[in-house]
From TrEMBL:
It comes from Solimicrobium silvestre. CDD domains: MPN_NLPC_P60 (cd08073). Belongs to the peptidase C40 family. This is Prokaryotic homologs of the JAB domain. InterPro entries: JAB_dom_prok (IPR028090), JAMM/MPN+_dom (IPR000555), NLP_P60_dom (IPR000064), Papain-like_cys_pep_sf (IPR038765), VirAsm_ModProt (IPR051929). SUPFAM superfamilies: Cysteine proteinases (SSF54001), JAB1/MPN domain (SSF102712).
Length: 244
């Protein structure tokens, strides 16, 4: 990384504190350039780079790295950072910013690169859109059956926006169909549940892994295996099966 690039990253990270700063490094006409991007995330704990910013960067040159800051936290990559780095196919630079005496100061910078990292199915942290219940189902199908399910963009808490029904609409596009209510469940069947959804639609999904157990990733919790009974059966709205 060129000294000017690092300086530009630090200035951006300090200017956006306490929000996470994010940006892209491109190579244009043989020169390295840092492009600050707008963080579209609704909170201060993660970042979302807009598709428009990516498009502008791609028009200007070749994207070679993603950059973001960790306000008041180590620059160590989270599970979500590692997964997203793999998906991007480029380097990720993470820089720490501390609000010392009210003056944000950028410090340590850590770089990670795609290396084939796979987050464990059980015990993974929750990060909506990156590590959530649908991500877990996609990973299970990829790891156990070598099936790549379709990916969908999804805003956090879409189930409370008064209109969205992403699971009912999305799973058929990913190759799933409903099974009869009295049909015996098979390993790989997906159970759609409604948990505190003001839209009145399913907003959580679990995968049946046999022996009365489900694998799922509940919002704000670590992914886990649980017995399918009691509360989970009460909130079940549909069971669907992959047919391709």
């Amino acid at each position: 990384m060129k000294p000017k690039t690092l300086t530009d990253i630090k200035r951006h990270a300090e200017a956006d504190y306490p929000r996470e700063a994010c940006g892209l490094i491109i190579i244009r006409r043989g020169r390295e350039k840092y492009l600050p991007c707008k963080n579209l995330a609704p909170d201060t704990e993660h970042f979302i780079i807009s598709a428009q910013d990516y498009a502008v960067a791609e028009e200007m040159g070749e994207i070679v790295a993603v950059v973001h800051s960790h306000p008041d936290a180590p620059a160590s990559p989270s599970e979500a950072d590692k997964v997203s780095c793999e998906a991007s196919g480029v380097l990720w630079h993470i820089i720490r910013v501390d609000g010392t005496e009210g003056i944000p100061t950028a410090g340590e910078l850590i770089t990670i690169e795609p290396c084939g990292y796979q987050v464990p199915l059980v015990g993974r942290q929750f990060f909506h859109g990156v590590l959530d219940c649908y991500s877990l189902i996609r990973d299970w199908y990829q790891q156990t059956r070598s099936i790549e399910l379709k990916q969908f963009s999804r805003a956090d808490e879409w189930w409370n926006d008064g209109k969205s029904d992403l699971y009912t609409q999305g799973f058929p596009q990913a190759g799933f169909v409903s099974i009869e209510s009295n049909a015996e469940m098979q390993v790989g069947d997906v159970i759609l549940m409604q948990i505190r959804s003001t839209n009145g639609v399913p907003n959580h999904a679990a995968i049946y892994i046999g022996d009365g157990l489900i694998l799922h990733h509940l919002h704000g919790h670590l992914s886990s295996r649980d017995v399918y009974g009691g509360y989970w059966q009460e909130v079940t709205r549909n069971v669907i099966r992959y047919v391709g």
